[in-house]
Protein 1
Amino acid sequence: MTQTNARVVELRTKFHQARAALQQALAEDARADVADYVFATLDGPATLSSLFGGKRDLFVIHNMGRGCNSCTMWADGFNGLYPHICDRASFAVSSPETPEQQAEFAASRGWKFPMVSTQGNRFAADMGFTTATGKPTPGVSAFQKQDGKIVRVSASGFNDADEFCPVWRLFDLLPEGADGWRPQRVYQNT
């Protein structure tokens, strides 16, 4: 390993340690008992508690919907990780679109994870994933069942600098970085 590579590894380790400490502080800010929200699905209403299945932990992705190419890219990535994540915790993607719109788009992308519609409830807003004008914003909330309650134990927004989408970290390895690249729904070269 070169000296430069060793330094990168050292800085990456320090960064991850600092990020983990900050994430714990953010988790304390996000920690709160939450209501058992009701979502629309193709199979009828589903409660937040039902999304846990038989697990203690649940991740809910706050997706802006099919109009957001970045959210589509994140969801494409989570689709590949879904079997691994579900071995440890339950997982669902929420968006403001109707269940029919969600199902059509999910089928076109080959997504396997469950989706729930936040249309008609305050879930995204109450979790802090809408703007002041009610426009959705992307991110993730982590929940646990604790003593018969649903508790949000952590949350994080998504952006080009996060580590929830490895495309950006791969582009960081190139001399020009992303070089103005933006996610698209369809690419000519694939």
Protein 2
Amino acid sequence: MISLIQRVSQAHVEVGGATIGKIGPGLLVLVCAEQGDSEAQADRLLAKILKLRIFGDGAGKMNRSVQDTGGGLLLVSQFTLAADTSGGNRPSFTNAAGPDEGRRLYDYFVERARASHPLVQTGEFAADMKVHLVNDGPVTIPLTVK
């Protein structure tokens, strides 16, 4: 699975002009299931995200995780993270999991996140979403788990 993690001071997702997910300080996580991914990859990705020490401690060093800070998680599905641009200027998305499998793994990921973290918000799978964020730092980290 592929993710792009952004440390934010705030973020929200809109669908059709209505806010459907919103957090204050925490992590905006764009997540993509690829062909062949399973629950095991989702579990490893979530564990890494929850423990990733990218928040400042008292000395200003990145030494605290989202769990340490009690920050929010805003999980947004984004199949375009699987883009392959090696064949030209038009991306191919053939590496992304199919819609049914992608939805199943995204839903599993969200379910496991909610079981492990107190503040989890989401986007809407396969919707035309508008994602608003204030990147804190900025801190943006790509993370892939095979």
Protein 3
Amino acid sequence: MKFIIKVIRLMLGLFAYSVGIVMLINANMGLSPWDVLHQGISRQTVLTMGQAGILVGLGIVFFNFIFKEKVGVGTILNMLFIGIFLDFLMLNDILPQPDSLLARVSMLIGGMIVIAIASYLYIGAGLGAGPRDGLMVALQHKTGKSVRFVRNSIEITALVIGFILGGSVGPGTVITSVGQGYIMQFIFKVCRFNVKTVSHSYIDDNIRSALGRG
């Protein structure tokens, strides 16, 4: 029962995260680095943006597996469902597309807040890190560089490739890159949530537990 509650919390978080991404897209001020990449791939292929995100996530999960980073149920669901929810929201035009600058800025900031709340929900479920967080940890272990350096390097690479492919870059890209961390920190503080206290369970742990070996 406890596991089911965790999965429900995770799925709510992933859906909310997708809502936040669509809000950033509809604000039309430029996307976050990873979404610039996903949109760029989408514009150069027959894939939707959500499908492009799933494809990139699948590649990252494979990379993490090669480098022996643990994968959780949450990692797999993150890889699949953010893209599925994203396409559902976009293809059905569920969220509005504002016209005025004030409304667009408000939607951009609102999207960042929603993403922060979503992160609190899905990280707090404790079912494994997202694929991109796992990539950051894997490269940090392999290179010995700081987490900040590795994260910035990954996001700059995603941004450059996405921009070359035609992804949307603008003031919103800078705002989300700089401001998302601060908003997330504020939301976590309001929710009295400390990431360091989360104990994640991974697929190999789940298997051992199911077999009575954990």
